[in-house]
Amino acid sequence: MTENNFIVFIQIVVAIWFCISVFIISKIIYFYLVTIKKWVKTEAVIIEYQMNWFRSKTDTDTEGWKETIKYSYTVNSIEYESNCVTKNLNILTSSKHFSKNYNFRKDQKIEIFYDPYNPKNGIIDSKLNFFTLMIPITFYIMIYFILFNQ
Fold first, then answer.
1. 134 vs 22: CA distance, rounded Å
2. Beta strands in the chain (DSSP E)
3. In sequence order, what are the residues at sequence separation of 6 or more whose Cβ sits closer than 8 angstroms to the Cβ of residue 66?
4. Alpha-carbon distance 65 to 63, whole Å?
């Protein structure tokens, strides 16, 4: 394969990856701007909160500190448990301090949102994070200038 064909191949792969990423980011944006507005706020209790060292089973380079939060809440006399915290992008870091977004303790009462049509779907975070948009945009601008401005 010639160098020019290789560059075209890489550009096509990046374009496909970009389209998939735009779809994923769009789903996150839609969730926070439309879907969660229909969800109901309720009180939950923290069952478990800890910082764990995470290592991917499929990628040995992906590791870092990750918060594990488990909470329970009651809807129509039925108790549910969830560990869904956010739909925003999360970054694993090697620093425990920078990975900590919450400061919960066991048995602490918190507010969560749940889907009234499917109450087992609960979430703590109800706001779109600025970095969910900025990290991919910055990455794609850099890739664009590297690959497409030759």
1. 12
2. 40-55, 63-75, 78-82, 109-115, 118-123
3. 51, 52, 53, 54, 90, 92, 99
4. 7
Q: What ranges do the domains of the chain cover?
A: 3-147
What is the spatial distance between Cα 22 and Cα 16, in angstroms, rounded to a whole number? 10
Nearest-CA neighbor of 35 among 129, 135, 113, 124?
A: 113
What is the H or E stretch that residue 64 is in? strand 63-75
Q: Which residue type is seen at 42?
A: T
Given the structure tokens 């794609």, which residue do they identify? 140
Q: Compute the average pLDDT of residues 58-73.
A: 80
Q: What is the pTM of this model?
A: 0.72
Amino acid letter, 33: L
